[in-house]
Amino acid sequence: MDPQTTLILLNAGLTLVEQLTPQVxxxxxxxxxxxxxxxxxxxxxxxxxxxxxxxxxxVNDGK
Amino acid sequence: xRFNRSFLPISLAVFALALAGCASLAPDGAYNGNxxxxxxxxxxxxxxxxxxxxxxxxxxxxxxxxxxxxxxTLSDQVNLNSKQWLKSYFAVRDAYVAAAPxxxxxxxxxxxxxPIQAALAxxxxxxxxxxTAPLPVATPAx
Lengths: 63, 142
Prior knowledge:
The structure holds 2 protein chains of 2 kinds. By secondary structure, chain A is mostly helical. Chain A contains 2 helices and 1 strand; from the N terminus they run H-E-H. Chain B is an all-alpha fold. The chains are: A mainly alpha, B mainly alpha.
């Protein structure tokens, strides 16, 4: 692999890491979780349950 | 592979997922101070978001990623099985919630999340080794 291609792929990889970071930061944040944030997670969890019980794959790519 | 700089933070991210935990919950919240349940739900939701992003990323970069067939294999496994993993988690979660306080220790939420976290670790490894186009922005599960 030539150096330029390596650099492009490396930059893409770092972008990927940056995009994952906010979720991870949310997970490791310490401190008191507000009532509003608890409610948000409860709603997301309810929606996740609905998703889990919906037939078919997680992501439909149109195949 | 050449992408160790990417691998380290993603590995740390997976490690953080495994150790995720809030310090405390505000009183009168939806979780009634149960940090175990809150943490478990947070991991399940975050994992689902990551799975969606990974599968979408693999679909969008399938031609490029074909040099590593294991990535498509993992993507297909995650896409087909992640809902079942989540259903298994919810089954244990429901039993945990319904149990009397003294009996809650019988239901191990961490064990219920184990398949999800194992898949998450594999996803992180492959994404770190084969970066292509950026991941689509993850949307909340559901």
